[in-house]
Amino acid sequence: MKQAFLIVAHKNFEQTKQLIEFIADEDHHVYIHIDQKNDGLFNQLKQYFQSFNTVFFLEQRMSINWGGLSQVLVTIQLLKQASNRGYDFYHLISGQDLFIKTKKEVSSFLKKNKGRQFLETLDIEENLWRIKGYYLFSDSIKYDCYTESFRKEIGIINRKLAEVSDIVVECSYGNIIYHKDRAR
Fold this sequence. Notes:
Elements: E1 3-9, H1 13-23, E2 28-34, H2 39-48, E3 55-57, H3 69-83, E4 89-94, H4 103-112, H5 128-132, H6 148-164, E5 168-172, E6 175-178
Parallel strand pairs: 1-2, 1-4, 2-3
Antiparallel strand pairs: 5-6
């Protein structure tokens, strides 16, 4: 059973290296995107895995912002790169993930459940704290036009809005709009 592991990573060379080493073999291929903000990690991992024929790096890198459109775009890039090989299963994970089961146990479970998909969803009310202070204008459809100073200014605005806001009520394209008057 062929499986593709699509990894989005941004830090921790040793942890990411160990994760890839654990996964990569003839039946388990790794496709990895390293955040554009960490050239050191990208260069270290690419050099380390250069002789592996089961590890593939996205060369077209982008700056990833948590909860932003960039996360969706990089996921699509990874799927496009992996989709021409006809895998039985695709796993989207981060470079910070660790396995709690062996590859053999995971593969056995997936063989028993061939044709099924497994997705996790979370209740937004229980996880509102994760969304509340995150990134007004973190991404935009034209995110490449943002300058570093503009991003810093937006970060200041985000923190100020989070301080005065009680609830997030609207999100679109990674932009969070706060409405204190609608708070519970």
